[in-house]
Design goal:
- With 405 residues, the chain is of the alpha/beta class.
- 39% of the residues lie in helices and 15% in strands.
- It contains 15 helices and 16 strands.
- The strands form five sheets. A seven-stranded mixed beta sheet has the order 2-10-9-6-5-3-4, with helices on both faces. It has a three-stranded antiparallel beta sheet with strand order 13-14-16. A two-stranded parallel ribbon has the order 1-15.
- Strand 11 and strand 12 form a beta hairpin.
- Helix 2 runs parallel beside helix 8, helix 3 packs across helix 4 and helix 3 crosses helix 7.
- It is globular.
- Bound molecules: pyridoxal-5'-phosphate.
């Protein structure tokens, strides 16, 4: 362990990278391999590979039970689950979404010609700001699609109050929020429905997967038909539908992941606490706050804010420097959905109403965590960051001299 990394050892200035292998953000968590393979063997013996098989049914029941919701409709991914939820709720015209989220969130609307109207976030929480939502409502608005970013809950009550008062449907992109709570209640049962992701990089992994969870029986029924082409019975299609079925092998992985939920949370929690300790006192670098004394959280996103002024090194240079050390930090969600196509062409001035989103998008980076990263590695990552911050201006000067000369 080379905890005392010196400026000349930095790979960006010609030294040797700290890690021989790459340390990724979003490395999948593999649960109990034997348990998964046993399920796959049973599945092959059964020869029931898709079409609402026994693993899919069991996975749905286990999720509903874990989250305390009445209905869980699993699908092949969260993007299609979002699209189906939006369609099943009958949304049209305009829907208000945060700009600081994954492209999948606004795409689920634009894909069906519903206009995503980007709303600013609260800097302190990274989540959609209810006070700004009100300003974005027009006669065409039919809904609010909020995101529990990093698994930290939105201000659900304030959003629900606006939705009720203005006659809007409220739904949540809960792709980050499996196992997290709002006011002590599991996320999953709020609004009209919530959408989960089980993509390989997400907290609970089924290779690819997603779900609509809701307490509304009609909505669940509609989503269930829409994910199988709108078939109600063998010869009877009653809606436009698509194919968003989850396969049995994915559900087998999902069930296996569910069995190690507690181990996963402890691994992420231990990593988070170690990062916090190691990053404490580095000027301009601050770790996102999770506090399970207030709300249960899954600690999955190791989001770090870099204030370039105070740190003496910009977020972007720090990310480049970490990449040179084989630490693949990511600038999520940079530059913000409103600055990506098709939205940046459709709404070239959207950023004027999103000052907090733009400020945050320029400062956040995600660091590697999860079961594939151990505390020694975290100490080494933090030592690199400390060296970079202690020598920010000199690193910048030397890089400028290199590229200038
Ligand atoms: C990953 C993600 C999605 C999309 O999930 P998929 O299952 O990959 O389709 C949607 N919203 C957010 C906030 C995400 O992070």
């Amino acid at each position: 362990m080379s905890l005392g990394k010196r400026i000349d050892d930095l790979a960006i200035l010609g030294g040797k990278p700290e890690f021989e292998y790459k340390l990724h953000v979003g490395r999948p968590n593999i649960g109990d391999r034997e348990a998964f393979l046993a399920r796959v063997n049973d599945m092959l013996d059964r020869k029931w590979l898709s079409n609402n098989g026994p693993y899919v049914q069991e996975f749905e029941a286990r999720i509903a039970e874990t989250l305390g919701v009445k209905h869980c409709v699993v699908m092949c991914n969260a993007t299609l689950a979002l699209e189906i939820a939006v369609r099943a709720l009958g949304l049209s015209g305009e829907v208000i979404v945060p700009g600081f989220t994954a492209a999948a969130t606004p795409h689920s609307l634009q894909w069906q010609y519903i206009t995503p109207v980007f709303c600013d976030i609260k800097y302190a929480t990274h989540n959609i700001d209810p006070d700004r939502v009100e300003d974005m409502i027009t006669p065409r608005t039919t809904g609010i699609l909020a995101v529990h970013l990093w698994g930290r809950p939105c201000d659900v009550e304030a959003l629900q109050e606006i939705a009720d008062r203005r006659g809007l449907k409220l739904l949540f992109d809960a792709a980050h929020a499996f196992g997290c709570t709002y006011k002590g209640k599991m996320i999953g049962g709020f609004g009209e429905c919530e959408i989960l992701s089980f993509h390989a990089t997400k907290f609970l992994n089924s290779f690819e997967g997603g779900a609509v969870v809701t307490n509304d029986a009609n909505l669940a029924h509609k989503a269930r038909l829409m994910k199988v082409y709108g078939f109600e019975g063998p010869d009877n299609v009653i809606y436009i539908g698509t194919n968003a079925k989850m396969s049995e092998v994915c559900a087998a992985m999902g069930l296996t992941s569910l069995e190690c939920l507690d181990d996963l949370i402890s691994a992420y929690r231990a990593n988070y606490l170690h990062y916090r300790k190691e990053l404490a006192g580095i000027p301009g670098v601050s770790c996102i706050v999770y506090d399970d004394a207030v709300e249960k959280c899954n600690y999955q996103y190791l989001a770090v804010e870099v204030d370039g002024q105070t740190a003496g090194i910009s977020r972007d240079l720090l990310v480049r420097l970490l990449h040179a050390e084989n630490v693949l930090a990511r600038r999520h969600f940079y530059p913000g959905c409103h600055k990506m196509e098709p939205y940046k062409s459709l709404f070239p001035h959207a950023g004027l109403l999103l000052p907090e989103t733009e400020k945050l998008a320029a400062r956040i980076m995600l660091l590697p965590t999860g079961t594939a990263v151990n505390v020694d590695e975290i100490s080494r990552v933090c030592a690199i960051i400390r060296t970079a911050v202690e020598n920010g201006p000199e690193i910048t000067d030397r890089l400028n001299a290199q590229s200038g000369g």
